[in-house]
From TrEMBL:
InterPro entries: AKR, NAD(P)_OxRdtase_dom_sf, NADP_OxRdtase_dom
One Pfam family it belongs to: Aldo_ket_red
Domain NADP-dependent oxidoreductase, residue spans: 15-315
Gene3D superfamilies assigned: NADP-dependent oxidoreductase domain
Species of provenance: Gehongia tenuis
Protein name (Swiss-Prot/TrEMBL): Aldo/keto reductase
UniProt GO MF annotations: oxidoreductase activity
Amino acid sequence: MNQKFELTPGYTINRIINGCWQLSEGHSLTCKLDFDDVMRAFHGLVERGFTTFDCADIYTGAEEFIGEFVKQLKNGSSISPDDIQIHTKYVPDLDILQDVDFNYTEKIIDRSLRRLNRDTLDLVQFHWWDYDVPGCVETAGHLCRLQEKGKIRNIGVTNFDTKHLAELVDAGIPVVSIQTQYSVFDRRPEKALLPYCKEKHIPLLCYGTLSGGLLAERWIGAASANPETRSQVKYLQVLEDSMGWEGYQELLLILQRIAKHHDASIAHVASKYILSQSGVGAAIIGIRNSKHVDSNTRIFDFDLDAKEMEMIRNHLAKHNMLEGEPFELERTVGSKYRNIMKMNLNE
């Protein structure tokens, strides 16, 4: 069963969140998704207590798919739409940042409400592509106005660095969470973001914990990897600049040894390691099919002891940490990280 925690008074979410980036158009590079199977996975997940979903306005088709799932819950399911939590994002396109105003913001939020078949959005996670373009704090303020109108329950952020998160907090924006990339490959949050968020009681909702499926037994002994999804393109870059292929293979063997001790998998151990970090609220695990629905329930059947945590930490300490703050490389013009980003998917 999934563990839960209270994100805000009266609002409880899972510590394992069902991620939906994998459902977006163009995410898979090698095959088409079986959306009937994905729908079966959604029903199977909520029946097992995995009731929190993460999507975005820019995940093309994902909000609509979840909206269809909500319709099915309304029509005879034992699970009510009120029993699930849906987190989306507000990501204004890079090319129009300078023109974003309240009316535009409300239009996009209203569109998400329609797509998701909701009267109120449980959590809207705000992203701003370019800090050099003015308007970030003001746009977050637009979300506050929409919260007052009852269209948004909670406001979070995604992919903010520490400085700009602090600017929002200091401006009085009621940020309840931050979604950020955090894994054994990408430990940038540990530099400044995680300590700041712990001080301000803002939990991290972590994506990339399984690095697009690279943290799995199938890769042990592999000489290389051909990316199967956009996720893997990104995480292979992270792997290359952190521990390299040799360090990655050594890590897989360490995680496998720990996993065997707990009758678990490498993915379970990698998830548990991040969830065990103080200040981490949840990990987001992508859903592409129904194969791993039962597997996710195993994550909370065991705990990593101090020796196992130290084994992982000692290996990570031998290798580089990515440069800069979370998402800093992804914002840097000309970087390989930015070059694979799609920054104009909202309109």
